[in-house]
Write a structure and sequence with these properties.
By secondary structure, the chain is α+β, with helices and mostly antiparallel strands. It has one domain. Helix content is 23%, strand content 31%. β3 (22-28) and β4 form a beta hairpin. It is globular and about 50 Å long.
């Protein structure tokens, strides 16, 4: 997987994750780290999956941390051995935000930028040793780009309240991820 970073107007990097012919973009849309995640294609799409296998090193690690922290309810990534943290986690798991976001170990994120009746949807699941991001476009309400599916996570006014924090942490961690080193193959001649 190739990581492409482009400096943006907020003094951070917009991130493109490129794998085969698929590209996932994660970028900042406001000074308070409002985020957008977009899958774009050259053909019309209504849904698509983007897989991040465990052999992708740091990229897999930060997405796995996002998944684990949200599923566990430990959205601040605190030391779970502490009793106070356990109580906070239990409290988070009892919120309507958690229950609307997590079902059957799948994270279902509704886009904050569209009306609740017609939001684009991002599902994040862990299957074997890969993280699977599934983007679904929900048509209706008003026209949407036929060649991309965007998900927006707001800092304030988000449908998932403070569960937006792990997504912001993911974005900040991706700022320093380098391209994975490609294996070099040597050719040997048989004599």
């Amino acid at each position: 997987m190739k990581v492409k970073r482009n400096r943006n107007e907020y003094n951070s990097f917009d991130i493109d994750l490129i794998q085969d012919e698929k590209m996932l973009s994660i970028y900042q849309t406001g000074a308070d780290i409002n985020l957008s995640c977009r899958y774009q294609d050259y053909r019309k799409i209504s849904n698509i999956s983007f897989n991040i296998p465990d052999n992708q090193g740091e990229i897999y690690s930060v997405f796995n941390k996002l998944y684990t922290n949200i599923i566990s309810g430990n959205i601040f990534g605190e030391d779970e051995s502490l009793q106070s943290v356990q109580e906070k986690i239990q409290s988070e798991k009892n919120t309507s935000w958690y229950r609307s976001l997590v079902q059957n170990n799948v994270i279902t994120l509704l886009c904050d930028a569209y009306p609740i009746q017609y939001p684009n949807v991002l599902k994040i699941a862990k299957k074997k040793e890969e993280i699977v991001l599934t983007f679904d476009k929900v048509d209706g309400g008003f026209p949407k780009d036929p060649y991309s599916i965007s998900i927006h996570v707001r800092q304030s006014g988000s449908r998932i309240y403070e569960f937006c924090i792990p997504f912001k942490t993911l974005f900040l961690q991706l700022q320093t991820v380098e391209n994975e080193k490609e294996e070099t193959k040597s050719l040997t001649k048989k004599l």
